[in-house]
Amino acid sequence: MTSPAAEGKTPDDLFGFTRQRKKSAGRRVLMHVIDAGDHGCVSDDAGIAVYKCGRCGHETDWTPFRTFTEAKRGIPCPKCNPTTPQASP
Ligand SMILES: [Zn+2]
Fold first, then answer.
1. Structural domain for 49, as ranges
2. Residue 22 domain flag
């Protein structure tokens, strides 16, 4: 006596629906700090940094960041990550 439902079923199969990934969003391309500096004045920001995208080479102007963790993590590239999903007219 066999139970077809129990055969060949791995946890992945049984719970596959929990492992679905939303591929529509894709991976965000992050820009990383290539230069960082100080404001030279007292402000809420920790400093300013220039980010560069390793994919398209886009560079930002000096951009203020609030924490070094935030700066090290990088910011989404505006060119590789369109912020407006709306179709162009
Ligand atoms: Zn880019």
1. 27-76
2. no
Residue 47 CA, ligand 1 centroid: distance in Å: 22
82 Cα to the center of ligand 1, angstroms: 10
Instruction: Report the side by side order of strands in the sheet with 75-76.
Output: 63-65, 47-53, 30-37, 75-76
All residue ranges of the chain with pLDDT < 50 are 24
Do the domain assignments include residue 35? yes
Residue 76: exposure state from Cβ atoms within 10 A (0-12, 13-18, ≥19) = middle
pLDDT of residue 79: 93
Q: Per the domain annotation, does 17 fall within a domain?
A: no
Domain count, the chain: 1
Residues with CB under 5 A from ligand 1 (ion): 53, 55-56, 58, 77, 79-80
User: How much is the pTM?
Assistant: 0.59
